[in-house]
Structures are given as structure tokens and as C-alpha cells.
């Protein structure tokens, strides 16, 4: 290893950019953050990864909502089967 290193052309910031991700600042309640950190430690994942997964589940849960048409179809099927 060299005794001295030349950092005159060095730049501050992230070494490796994360494509598809955006750095933000967010305020989360302390108890919520601590719960994610504890869960992350048990699962061997990062707490930010778990928060991201929880947010994805919240988005996707709306896609599986039962519509009025679905409910009517199921009721008709059940009435026909009776």
C-alpha cells in the first residue's frame, strides 16, 4: 500500500449510485422505527429494506380490494349453487 494517497481529484458523495432509488428525509415515530430495527435484526435484513417492503405491501393491498361487481358475482354464484 502506498504511504501517501492523492485525493485532490476526489469527490464527496455516494461511491456507488443506487439506480431506481431516491434518497429522502422522513420523520418516523421512534417506536415504529425501533420495531422495524428489531424485526430487521431478527431477520438479518436492513430496517430500511423492511420499511420499503411494508410500503410496497400497503400499495399492493389496494389492488386486491373486493369490488362491488366481485361481491355481486360471488353472491349470484352462491345463490345458484343453493
Written description of the protein model:
It is built from three helices and no strands. It has helices spanning 30-43, 47-61, 68-81. The longest helix has 15 residues, at 47-61. The model has no long low-confidence stretch (mean pLDDT 87).
What brief labels describe this structure?
82 residues; mainly alpha; 52% helix
Task: State the gist of this model.
By secondary structure, the chain is mainly α. It has helices spanning 30-43, 47-61, 68-81.
Order of helices and strands: HHH
What is the count of β-strands?
Answer: 0
Q: Helix segment count?
A: 3
Helix content: 40-55%
Give the C-alpha Rg.
Answer: 24 Å
- Terminal CA distance reads 82 Å
Strand proportion: under 5%
Shape: elongated
Low-confidence stretches: none
Average of per-residue pLDDT values: 87
Describe the main β-sheet briefly.
none
Structural class: mainly alpha
SSE blueprint:
Layout: H1 30-43, H2 47-61, H3 68-81
Amino acid at each position: 500500500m502506498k504511504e501517501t494517497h492523492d485525493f485532490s481529484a476526489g469527490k464527496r458523495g455516494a461511491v456507488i449510485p443506487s439506480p431506481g432509488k431516491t434518497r429522502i428525509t422522513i420523520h418516523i415515530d421512534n417506536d415504529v422505527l425501533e420495531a422495524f430495527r428489531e424485526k430487521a435484526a431478527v431477520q438479518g435484513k436492513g430496517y430500511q429494506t423492511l420499511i420499503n417492503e411494508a410500503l410496497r405491501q400497503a400499495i399492493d393491498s389496494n389492488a386486491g380490494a373486493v369490488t362491488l361487481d366481485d361481491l355481486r358475482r360471488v353472491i349470484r354464484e352462491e345463490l345458484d349453487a343453493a
